[in-house]
Amino acid sequence: MTATATASTPTADNIKGWSRRDMAKRLAEDIPEGWYVNLGIGIPLMVSDFVPADREVVLQSENGILGMGPLQTKRTFDPWIVNAGKQNVTLKTGASIVGHADSFAMIRGGHLDLCVLGSFEVAANGDFANWTTSLKSVPAVGGAMDLAVGAKRIWLIMDHTSKDGKPKLLETCTMPLTAPGVVKRVYTNLAVIDITARGFELVSMTPEITFEALQARTGARIHRKD
Amino acid sequence: MAINKIVSSFADAMAGIKDGSTVLIGGFGAVGQPNHLLDALTEQGAKDLTIVANNAGSGRETGIARLMDMGRVRRIVCSFPRSAGSVVFEELHSAGKLELELVAQGTLAERIRAGGAGIPAFYTATAYGTYIGEGKEVREFKGRKYILEEAIKADVALVEAWQADRWGNLRYRTSGRNFNQPMATAADLTIVQSQHLVELGDLGPDDIHTPGIYVDRVIHVPYGDPPAAAPLAD
Q1: What are the domain boundaries of chain B?
Q2: How far from each other are the two terminal CA atoms of chain A, in whole angstroms?
Q3: B2-54, pLDDT tens digit by residue?
Q4: 3-state SS of chain B: helix, strand, coil percent to 5?
Q5: Residue of B124, B132, B63, B23 lying closest to A140 (CA atoms)
Q6: Average pLDDT for residues A186-196, to the nearest whole number?
């Protein structure tokens, strides 16, 4: 849990931390059996590869699938089954299909235990911004705003800093919000951080980094758990 | 005279659609998209249309993209307009020739459902406190803030089904259900292209996804499968 001395110095810029697969695996291990979960397009969908085989977690896809399985192969090809990212996916035994209105009633009605999304920015008050970096280009929103307010929990999986080293965990988001005050937990390449009434609270961090170095890469105060 | 909603030509399927109509278009990506009806609508020639669809088309040769490229669309109500291949949308929108109303996907589905169910408007937490929610009426219920969204009631809905009978009872195939199911309920004139025509009674009462009361015209279009979404692994 606490950082041990490693070859990396706290200020070194070569700290990569966990890989995306590591992040997805850590998150997957925290999903209890029996949860109904929506995974956003992209890295969040990788989480499904790491849910332990003996643990029943039911994946929802916003276009009307409950009980989504892995991506199709040439052997299992059925062009009539797609996920929200318009990839051809399989259905698990026990899966069901609904239309768009029923699927979003499921989402907006608070029935999903968890939604995992990627994000550009997250703030210490639980605000997050993941749908567009700017309103100057033509934005596309999809189901992100519905999932953000509908699921019981929003966990984000994202890089801790931008490519040029700027924090993505902030006091206040600078980009257009997806929803205010909804994020409960953030999995980054450097740390797992809860968002509570106090703001960011450290759950765990990569041994490559010290608490001080983590704080230096974060745009708002990180509290240690009591 | 027995009820028979099956028509045999695209001209009959599109008859009477007026300039200035609002048209709902089912589908999610390529699956369940009524492309043959869209091409027939392009042929029919109605213009100054408002299109309601999840996506704003892809390519230039067919579907929503072709309808827009032919200059028939004034306004599009959409949740995900910008995607791979949405070139026509981007050209027209950036040239100021196409109005966009951006709607969160669940709000779009619910506005259509409400339109079909006779509900004029509803409150939702989706998009409260965001750019999309700006300027909309806010009301608090049990300590949470919601915005008011109005229903969408259209002149025409274009729907793709897997099976249909002469009463217009429909079944969809897996992910092909998507927006087709709510949209079928929310227009004065619902037109269906179906992969299969079946005898009345072949679809059991528990198996019908859209009851025929919502459907006005059905045309048989057995085009086969949509394309693979992406290259597949062995």
Answers
A1: 10-220
A2: 14
A3: 999 999 999 999 999 999 999 999 999 889 999 999 999 999 999 999 999 99
A4: 25, 30, 50
A5: B132
A6: 98
**For chain B, how big is the Rg over CA atoms in Å?**
18
Which three-class secondary structure string do you get for B66-89?
HHHHCCCEEEEEECECCCCCCHHH
Could you give the ipTM of this predicted complex? 0.95
Please name each of the domains of chain A with its CATH number. 20-224 (3.40.1080.10)
* Mutation target among B92, B98, B134, B177 for the A interface, most CBs of A within 10 A: B177
- The first and second tokens of residue B209, run together, are 């996804």
**Mean pLDDT over each residue of chain A, to the nearest integer:** 92
| Residues of chain A neighbouring B149 (CB-CB closer than 8 A) | none
CB A62 within 8 A of CB B172: no
pLDDT value at position A13? 62
A178 contacts in chain B (CB < 8 Å): 130
Torsion of the alpha carbons at B70, B74, B78 and B80, rounded to the nearest 10: 50
Which residue in the set A63, A73, A143 is minimally distant from B234, CB to CB?
A73
In whole angstroms, give the CA distance from residue B146 to residue B137: 8
Place domain B10-220 in its CATH homologous superfamily.
Glutaconate Coenzyme A-transferase (3.40.1080.10)
pLDDT digits (tens, 9 = 90+) for B172-186: 999 999 999 999 999
Tokens of B127: 């998009």
Residue A76's alpha-carbon distances to A64, A82, A91, B172, B229, in angstroms, are 20, 13, 10, 20, 14
